[in-house]
């Protein structure tokens, strides 16, 4: 009797159908790594970030933008090149004094707690730590009296200045649109009054040492931006508070 043989049909290996799981697992792992990295970036330490900005500045020998209005091409702490009234010392020295760096970090910490101060521009230059205060933060158009909404910032500023010994210069600036009122015959008077009113407030309301302060008005003649656009005029309408480096700082 012949032996009867049966043959089973060879089944393809199950693993051949599930090889896609390997690629899928790799993709999920990479996706997880991506989101972990993005989360880590958002948790950067603010102080270390400030130190990194200052290190970049030293390498480039250029002003450091620390916050507020975004810098446009050709817009910096220096007024437009070749214009009357250019301010000197706008480019930062190779290494700013450590005390001024510490003041900059203190100012950043104080301002970032209130979103209403987000439009303030901070730069460290050869003149010192410069705070560009936009007109609308403190004044109505064509006026030198403080808006009630500006007092919270003035109190924060006074608190910062009370803790440091640096000399402080306050400078008023306008755009080039003419003004001719009984109180302000020109932009010169308007810019000077705004600067002196700020100094008087710090001295009279917060009893800071008058010997530490000076005030000046530049009118329209030290612009940051072009007066041919509303954005440029908005940059130009400002009061600058310059915290000077200590003599031995």
Brief digest:
The chain is α+β, with helices and mostly antiparallel strands and 249 residues long. It has helices spanning 20-42, 46-60, 98-111, 135-138, 151-162, 187-204, 230-236; strands at residues 64-67, 121-125, 128-134, 168-173, 213-217, 238-243.
Keywords:
six-stranded mixed sheet, 249 residues, 7 helices, alpha+beta, 2 domains, 60s Ribosomal Protein L30, Chain: A
Number of E-type strands: 6
CATH superfamily of the largest domain: OmpA-like domain
Structural class, from secondary structure content? Answer: alpha+beta
Q: What is the CATH architecture descriptor of the largest domain?
A: 2-Layer Sandwich
Rounded to the nearest angstrom, the distance between the terminal CA atoms is 112 Å
Mean pLDDT: 79
Strand ordering within the main sheet: 1-2-3-6-4-5
How do the helices and strands follow one another from N- to C-terminus?
HHEHEEHHEHEHE
Note poorly predicted spans: 60-65, 68-94
Structural domain count:
2
Tell me the name of the CATH class of the largest domain: Alpha Beta
What portion of the residues fall into strands of 2 or more residues?
A: 5-15%
Helix content: 25-40%
Task: Please write out the topology.
Blueprint: H1 20-42, H2 46-60, E1 64-67, H3 98-111, E2 121-125, E3 128-134, H4 135-138, H5 151-162, E4 168-173, H6 187-204, E5 213-217, H7 230-236, E6 238-243
Helix pairs in contact: 3-5
């Amino acid at each position: 009797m012949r032996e009867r043989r049966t043959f089973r049909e060879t089944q393809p290996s199950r693993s051949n159908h599930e090889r896609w799981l390997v690629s899928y697992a790799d993709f999920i792992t990479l996706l997880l790594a991506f989101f972990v990295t993005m989360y880590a970036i958002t948790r950067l330490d603010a102080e270390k970030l400030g130190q990194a900005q200052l290190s970049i500045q030293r390498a480039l020998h250029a002003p450091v933008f620390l916050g507020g209005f975004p810098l446009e091409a050709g817009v910096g702490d220096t007024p437009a090149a070749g214009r009357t009234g250019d301010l000197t010392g706008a480019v930062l020295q190779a290494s700013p004094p450590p005390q001024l760096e510490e003041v900059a970090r203190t100012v950043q910490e104080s301002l970032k707690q209130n979103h209403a101060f987000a439009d303030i521009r901070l730069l460290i230059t050869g003149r010192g730590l410069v705070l560009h205060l936009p007109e609308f933060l403190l004044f109505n158009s064509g006026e030198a009296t403080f808006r009630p909404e500006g007092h919270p910032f003035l109190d924060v500023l006074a608190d910062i200045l009370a803790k440091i010994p640096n000399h402080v210069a306050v400078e008023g600036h306008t755009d080039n649109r003419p003004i001719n009122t009984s109180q302000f015959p020109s932009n010169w008077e308007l810019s000077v009054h705004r600067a002196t009113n700020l100094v008087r407030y710090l001295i009279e309301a917060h009893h800071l040492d008058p010997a530490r302060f000076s005030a000046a008005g530049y009118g329209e003649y030290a612009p940051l931006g072009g007066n041919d656009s509303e954005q440029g005029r908005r940059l130009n309408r400002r009061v600058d508070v310059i915290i000077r480096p200590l003599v031995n700082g």
